[in-house]
Amino acid sequence: MPKTKLMKVRLGDNCMICNKRKPEGLQVVNTFICLSCESELVHSDEKDAVYHTYVKQVRTLSNNFI
């Protein structure tokens, strides 16, 4: 019996914020934000430390776009 070739299947993209591979999220320009990070970003208060982390990551997105 002949050998079969290995086929790689890509499930999802790497989130620009948490850097985890997720199947669903937002494609923004050439980057991906997973649904859980998007939800945390939308619901976080500007006084939260997490909020400032998200802002830094999104700024890198805008810098790559320009």
UniProtKB/TrEMBL annotation:
Pfam family of the protein (one): Gin
**This protein's name:** Sigma factor G inhibitor Gin
